[in-house]
Amino acid sequence: MSLAKTNYAFTLFLIGLLTLSSCSKKEKTTPQRPNILFIMSDDHAYQAISAYSDKLIKTPNIDRIANEGMLFTNACVTNSICAPSRATILTGKHTHINGKINNLMPFDTTQVTFPQLFQKAGYETAMYGKLHFGNNPKGVDDFMILPGQGNYLNPKFITKEGDTTITGYVTDIITDFTINWLDKKRNKEKPFMMMYLHKAPHRPWWPNPEKFKEFAKKTFPEPETLFDDYSNRGTAAKTAEMNLLTHMKYGHDSKISPKTIDEMGGVEPEVPSINGFNRAYSRFNEEQRKLYDPVIDSINTWFKNNWPTLNDKEKMQWKYQRYMQDYLGCISSVDDNVGRVLDYLDESGLAKNTIVVYTSDQGFYLGEHGWFDKRFIYDESFKTPLLIRWPNQIKPGTTNDEMVQNLDFAQTFLEAALIDAPEDMQGESIIPLLKGENEKWTRDAVYYHYYEYPGEHTVKRHYGIVNKEYKLVHFYHDINEWELYDRLKDPQEMNNVYNNPDYADKVKELKIELEALRVKYKDSKALDQKYINMSVKE
Ligand code: SGN
Ligand code: CA
């Protein structure tokens, strides 16, 4: 063999070696696609998670996600109501684009949702718990969803195999089935994307019997704005029907039986009522009633003996305590059950390659401004809890205060799973923030638009822009009112400064920015009107 030939053969051999080693290197460094466990509860206020504040309750299990990951202090929604929030999460689009403006109309299932993209990309996908769409989810290999709002006790579920009713407490049941899917049912050859969606702590707040008993004995600190008279706010706050004293229902919410109210010959103030107490109680079996009855009896006896002697302030205080006892009792079960799932991830070894997200479909009023419920752009309902754990990617125990939205979840999860997001999704992946690369984040304001009016709780239609310093809101439907809040000086949003001359320049500036956001996200007066017309026909 000539020298030249020998050299040539040697070179080929070297190239071969290098190619081989670079291939195997590539294989080794190709990231393993992470699993995603998306945990969402319904109406869980961030004020009731101890990672945010431990004034009301300790939630050690949910807190673990933040201790081992990241806590977002300015996470918010695009439209603070259940099914519209879920539609935004699944499509990565604002309400006016995905068309799910309220809880009433069914979701248009011809749209692409992120679970479909995961499924197509080889993920095993599932959805267990509350969806509230009026139709079944697409893009999931397995599902088990509550019809509509679902029930706390002995709930019915819609599954792939048909309908089934399961005896027990909803939060425990959804968790049992979630763990079973993770452990036994799924195809373990594939990464998974699991949506584990609690009904709790949605109204009418029935804790399990043990928590009902435990929490009924507790007393909770009142929010500073419990007795708000809405004096420096607009018409919308004054006309909303979500005040604890005048709109929270005796039976449905506070667990006063119709029998007690009859025996008392009625109660003041009168609150328009459905017989929600009986509706829930009639689902309980004998054994469950035995557990609930002693607590229900003691609440009712106290009420009968004391209610007529209370003044309005004391009535408000009593209703607030009853509300918190039941609401927080429900949350305590959510926390225990999240702990069970996190323990399962640890024991099974799944934790290290699983992104765990904890959030709620929106925030909630826990007596702030005298309210329960949500819907408004004001902070307690606009903001939502968000805690994310992603081992080796997120630095444990970090906090982030950027304005991220439920609109961003789809693109974030897709990027994490190395799946291309469709061009027409409207959010932004928050992965740079998760990795601590905050300088890559450019958004400084978000857009919000609420529609379900006329409707329950009578919160008027509005849209607005929110940045870290200000919130500008337009109520545009049957009133034409603007509100401006100085978020730094007035974090409780007690003073609308829209007409204050000191803020005139700010108003001008924010109006331009708001219009630019409407253009950016393709919202318009024409769409506002289209959705008003549509609701009238419903
Ligand atoms: C129910 C509740 C309302 C609540 C809506 C929407 N009333 O209708 O208080 O605002 O759900 O909630 S109740 O009498 O049925 O309890 S959402 O979370 O599904 O949007
Ligand atoms: Ca909700």
Automatic annotation (TrEMBL):
<dbReference type="InterPro" id="IPR032506">
    <property type="entry name" value="SGSH_C"/>
</dbReference>
<feature type="coiled-coil region">
    <location>
        <begin position="500"/>
        <end position="527"/>
    </location>
</feature>
<dbReference type="InterPro" id="IPR024607">
    <property type="entry name" value="Sulfatase_CS"/>
</dbReference>
<comment type="similarity">
    <text>Belongs to the sulfatase family.</text>
</comment>
<protein>
    <submittedName>
        <fullName>Sulfatase</fullName>
    </submittedName>
</protein>
<feature type="domain" description="N-sulphoglucosamine sulphohydrolase C-terminal">
    <location>
        <begin position="367"/>
        <end position="519"/>
    </location>
</feature>
<keyword id="KW-0175">Coiled coil</keyword>
<keyword id="KW-0378">Hydrolase</keyword>
<dbReference type="Pfam" id="PF16347">
    <property type="entry name" value="SGSH_C"/>
</dbReference>
<dbReference type="InterPro" id="IPR017850">
    <property type="entry name" value="Alkaline_phosphatase_core_sf"/>
</dbReference>
